[in-house]
Amino acid sequence: MSPTNFLRRCYSTVLLCLMLVFSLHAGAREKSATGADKLLIGVPNNFYAELRSGEPLGIVLETLDALLSDMGFERQYVSMSNSEMKAALKKGSIDIATSQLVSQSDEKSFHSLPMVREYNVLLVSKQDEFSIETLADLRGLRLGGREGFRYPLIEADEKITIERNRKDGENIRKLFLGELDAAIVGSVSDSYEFRSEGVFNDVRLIEPAVGFVDIGVRFSRQSFEQSEIDRFNQALESFIGGAAWERILEKNGSSDLVREWPVIAADAK
Question: What is the total count of domains within the chain?
Answer without folding.
Answer: 2
